[in-house]
Amino acid sequence: MSLDALKSAIPDYAKDLRRNLDSVVDGSRLTAQQLWGTLLVTSIASRSPVVLRELALEAQANLSPEAYTAARSTAATMALNNVFFRTRHLLSDQEYGGLRTGLRMNVLADPGVGRTDHELWCLAVSAVNACGACLDSHERALRKAGVDRETVQEAFRIASLVQAVAVTLDAESILTEPAE
């Protein structure tokens, strides 16, 4: 299955998702590396085997080997960070904020791609994983680096779309299984 096959798997009741995929892939304001890295990290974060398999193939064809590895590293690190920092943020006891994390996150120091691309990918994964603390942190870093709001929004627009496609296709695979 390719990106086209992924789009054709989207049921007619969700045809807007198909149109949005076309719009994102063909008309994104992001660079190719930012776009395909964002698609890859959010497909990993979506936890959908179908979406990950198809978008990873396309991402691998559109990213350098270094950027492909960097995106995967970013997704792994943000899976860790999003749970940790979301939990710390949601706890009423603010004392946790002063404690040492005790988690290794070396990829943050040297992500393997430019800082802006890495921050966009971190923001997109944080959107899928609903970590407000991480969203704020990465949005601030992007804005401080001179990235405009439209570009920041493009990253979480892609995240919302990939998540919606994943939820829809995973639901369809269950709802269309023959009853035992």
UniProtKB/TrEMBL annotation:
Cystine crosslinks: 131-134
The EC number(s) this enzyme carries: 1.11.1.28
Entry annotated with the keyword Oxidoreductase: yes
Segments forming domain Carboxymuconolactone decarboxylase-like: 96-176
Record-linked SUPFAM superfamilies: AhpD-like (SSF69118)
UniProt cross-references to Pfam families, sorted A to Z: CMD
Keyword line: Antioxidant, Disulfide bond, Oxidoreductase, Peroxidase, Redox-active center
Catalytic site positions: 131, 134
Catalytic activity from the UniProt record: N(6)-[(R)-dihydrolipoyl]-L-lysyl-[lipoyl-carrier protein] + a hydroperoxide = N(6)-[(R)-lipoyl]-L-lysyl-[lipoyl-carrier protein] + an alcohol + H2O
Family (UniProt): Belongs to the AhpD family.
Function text: Antioxidant protein with alkyl hydroperoxidase activity. Required for the reduction of the AhpC active site cysteine residues and for the regeneration of the AhpC enzyme activity.
Protein name as catalogued: Alkyl hydroperoxide reductase AhpD
Species annotation: Streptomyces vulcanius
Classification lineage: Bacteria, Bacillati, Actinomycetota, Actinomycetes, Kitasatosporales
